[in-house]
Amino acid sequence: MSNKFKILFLINPISGVGKKKIIPTYIDKYLNKQKFDYRIAYTQYRQHAHQLALDGKAKYDIIVAIGGDGTVNEVGSALVHSNCALAIIPTGSGNGFAHHLKIPKKIKQAILTINNYHVITVDTGIVNQKVFIGTCGFGFDAHIAKKFDEYHKRGLMSYVKLIRKEFKTYQPKSYIVTIGNTIKKFNAFMFCVANSSEFGNGFVISPNSNLQDGIFENITLNKFKFKEVFKLGRQIFSRTIDKSIHFNCFTTQSDYQIEILEQDAVIYHIDGEYLQSDTNKFNIKIDSQSLKVVCYSK
Prior knowledge:
Largest sheet: 6 strands, antiparallel
Helix content: 10-25%
Structural class: alpha+beta
Shape: globular
Oligomer: single chain
Distance between the termini: 32 Å
Order of helices and strands: EHEHEHEHHEEEHHEEEEEEHEEEEE
Number of domains: 2
Strand content: 35-45%
Low-confidence stretches: none
Strand order of the largest sheet: 6-5-18-15-8-9
CATH architecture of the largest domain: Sandwich
Mean pLDDT: 91
Number of helices: 8
CATH class of the largest domain: Mainly Beta
């Protein structure tokens, strides 16, 4: 009977289109076959990775999400509270969760990271019974996630173009946040619940987030003038956005509720993938120490 770890690679053929043909070759070349027995499967539609991970989590020690944050969410949300660990080969447009874990973007180096098999247990979140791994958001970030999904090109420059185009017409929303007996009311241009630190592409919205502390950072940005975008951009990419006068943060450790006023249906995002809700109320829960993840280790 083999003592090797069993590993399933799930390749999203849409994410990282130019890489999908070489990934099996890289896996065969660089995966430590003395340590792992492996199988490769391709996803065929949205949420297929989730179903494959659900079906495989009792059979495998590791399931690898090969794609972007959407694929990571599909796989990771299936593996919560299981003994099967999530690993990532980041080939998406943003790869925010992988960046937080310092998983290399180069395929070879990501596979070598898997070979090290350094596993930690991290927190996840639940928003209206849907699992999020890194972030969820209700403001301008959700609006851009929807526009990006509809856009014809992937990559960082597409995000930049969409932000520039949508900024002037997007209006801040009004929020009520209820945490126990405490009620917070405010307007915000962006409102993000952060378990991890970034959206992707180095866009660090919550530089102090820790995946293992049982705490969510609730990040809001006030409306700012377009001429300030470049200064904010430098702060975001240098991990100093928390120094901005437009930045606000409050932390939560228990369940709480977010209500978005003057709206019946709300666009929001989970790990960069937009959704439309038929309610303006969202229940947020922290699921502490709920997911095993293979991450970078020196």
